[in-house]
């Protein structure tokens, strides 16, 4: 009798404990801890990384305007992400799922503390993706720095994030048509860098050059600030790329190593190109090459070996260097902080090269097989090229329209000539970046 009671009690306790144990087993604490860390690292890329990197590159009278833009975008995009952008990017759009999600998760409806995406809490996944949505429009401000009104910047950035970033994010990562076709974009070559780079090119053309562009020297006012920001970007990019594995595993480790190798190769290639052309290597050149290497490896970071990353980084340093020269010197387009030649061209190059380097049979340069499937190299390249063309074309068209609309809504995109000469810090914010009195 006593034995039966003990057995029954044990059975009852095991039945009561099963749901809790199952729920606990489905949550991976290690992966959760890593994505929490990666989320902080990616936000660190924008604040303070990108803010300092861009802030040092502009002239003294405009430094606060750049810092202000980065902070404002971070806050505003975060609220948009809560209100509905997360749902549009990663929600189920039913019959329209290939193009855009729905609003079923607006204001994080149904996203509780126990909701999971894979084996991590969905709220952490949403926060991680939010940091990508923040940095993408923040990258674009480098194209129109020192001349766009703050109100125009804010309206344009928010409209652009809703109508460009969210749909493209859904196409590539949220179950949309490019993801279903097998596009390889591990961490944002199309979603982040092509969209930001192409939008920057269009913005630079529509807004027009800074006063004195091509005639007056416009050197960075604080390279120390820029180098500090660049170092923060390099470290933060580990979260950007390795975090996109959404797990603390070998895929994340390989992405981290590929990211580091490409950044190193891009930095040294740009330095060597500049040294050969101008007789001296510059600090600005080496940090710009590093960013080019980081942006170019981003779509391929989970699909290529470290040796493949070396080829990508060297290619980034060489090609992005020449594109910077062509854009400003030959084509006379004032993309103030080189967003298109570094991020746009880098994103296009990396998205294309991963279609080649993910193929088997290339020895130490071959892909690691993360998400590459069994697609032949010709078919994969076709998908990669289609993804580049669709993303770039859609972004260019929508960006042009949104800039025109923003100009009408805000009474013009630019500050006046007198205000530009005085500086955006005083004109728009009534503050100075430096007061040495």
Keywords, please?
single chain, 437 residues, mainly alpha, Ammonium transporter fold, two-stranded antiparallel ribbon, 15 helices, 2 strands, 69% helix, 1% strand, globular, disordered N terminus
Helicity, as a percent range:
55-70%
Count of distinct structural domains: 1
CATH class: Mainly Alpha
| Residue windows where pLDDT falls under 50 for at least 5 positions | 1-6, 8-25, 370-374
What is the chain-wise order of helices and strands? HHHEEHHHHHHHHHHHH
**Number of helical segments with 4 or more residues:** 15
Structure characterization notes:
With 437 residues, the protein is an all-alpha fold. The chain has one domain: Ammonium transporter fold (Orthogonal Bundle). The chain is built from 15 helices and two strands. Helix 2 packs antiparallel against helix 3.
Short description:
With 437 residues, the chain is mainly α. Helix 2 packs antiparallel against helix 3 and helix 5 packs antiparallel against helix 7.
Lay out the secondary structure:
Layout: H1 2-26, H2 29-57, H3 63-90, E1 116-117, E2 120-121, H4 122-140, H5 150-173, H6 177-181, H7 189-207, H8 223-242, H9 250-278, H10 283-297, H11 306-330, H12 339-357, H13 377-410, H14 417-422, H15 424-429
Antiparallel strand pairs: 1-2
């Amino acid at each position: 009798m006593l034995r039966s009671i003990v057995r029954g009690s044990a059975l009852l306790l095991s039945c009561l404990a099963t749901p809790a144990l199952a729920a606990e087993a489905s949550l991976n604490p290690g992966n959760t801890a890593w994505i929490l860390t990666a989320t902080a690292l990616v936000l660190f890329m924008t604040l303070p990384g990108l803010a300092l990197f861009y802030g040092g590159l502009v002239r003294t009278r405009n430094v606060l305007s750049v810092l202000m833009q980065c902070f404002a975008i971070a806050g505003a995009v975060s609220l948009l992400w809560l209100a509905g952008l997360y749902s549009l990017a990663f929600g189920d759009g039913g019959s329209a799922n290939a193009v855009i999600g729905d609003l079923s998760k607006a204001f994080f409806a149904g996203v509780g503390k126990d909701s999971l995406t894979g084996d991590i809490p969905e709220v952490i996944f949403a926060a991680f993706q939010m940091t990508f949505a923040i940095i993408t429009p923040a990258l674009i401000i480098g194209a129109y720095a020192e001349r766009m009104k703050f109100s125009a910047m804010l309206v344009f950035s928010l409209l652009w994030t809703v109508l460009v970033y969210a749909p493209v994010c859904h196409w590539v990562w949220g179950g949309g048509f490019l993801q279903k076709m097998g596009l390889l974009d591990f961490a944002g070559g199309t979603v982040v860098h092509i969209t930001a780079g192409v939008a920057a090119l269009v913005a630079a053309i529509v807004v027009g050059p800074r006063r004195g562009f091509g005639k007056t020297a416009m050197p960075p006012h604080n390279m120390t600030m820029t180098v500090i920001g660049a170092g923060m970007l390099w470290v933060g990019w580990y979260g950007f790329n390795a975090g996109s594995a959404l797990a603390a595993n070998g895929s994340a480790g390989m992405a981290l190593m590929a990211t580091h190798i490409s950044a190193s190769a891009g930095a040294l290639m740009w330095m060597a190109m500049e040294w050969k052309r101008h007789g001296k290597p510059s600090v600005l050149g080496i940090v710009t090459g590093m960013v080019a290497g980081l942006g170019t490896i981003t779509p391929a970071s989970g699909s290529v070996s470290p040796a493949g990353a070396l080829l990508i980084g060297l290619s980034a340093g060489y090609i992005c260097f020449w594109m910077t020269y062509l854009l400003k010197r030959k084509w006379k387009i004032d993309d103030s902080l080189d967003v298109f030649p570094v991020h746009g061209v880098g994103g296009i190059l990396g998205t294309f090269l991963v279609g080649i380097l993910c193929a088997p049979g290339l020895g130490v340069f071959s892909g690691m097989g993360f998400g590459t499937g069994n697609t032949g190299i010709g078919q994969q390249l076709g998908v990669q090229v289609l993804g580049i063309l669709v993303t770039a074309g859609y972004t260019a068209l929508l960006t042009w329209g949104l800039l025109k609309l923003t100009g009408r809504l805000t009474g013009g995109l630019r500050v006046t000539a007198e205000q530009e000469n005085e500086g955006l810090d005083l004109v728009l914010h009534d503050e100075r970046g430096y007061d040495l009195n």
